[in-house]
Amino acid sequence: MNISDSKHTLRASNADLSSSIFSDVSLQSAQFSDVNLSMARFSDINFSGAKLNDVNLSGVEIDNCDLTGMKIRGILVSDLFAAYEKKG
Fold first, then answer.
1. Residue 77 pLDDT > 90, yes or no?
2. Which of 67, 37, 34, 36 is nearest to 50 (CA)?
3. How far apart are CA 14 and CA 82, in angstroms?
């Protein structure tokens, strides 16, 4: 299925959308629950203000990202890096 140049609210449930491609798409305020994104690739993504809860991040790699204000368990990531470097 191809969707382009349109604005729709989609509801997908009990569906397999494996290998789908999203390019130049707004998913602002979208909600994801019980979703398998293993092996997914993200680039040039705006996750600002996103909230992740009960998420399996094992094996996740984060590179070349703006981490300004990012918190893990309420602790600023910049503070975690500073403490790590200080411990050095």
1. yes
2. 67
3. 43
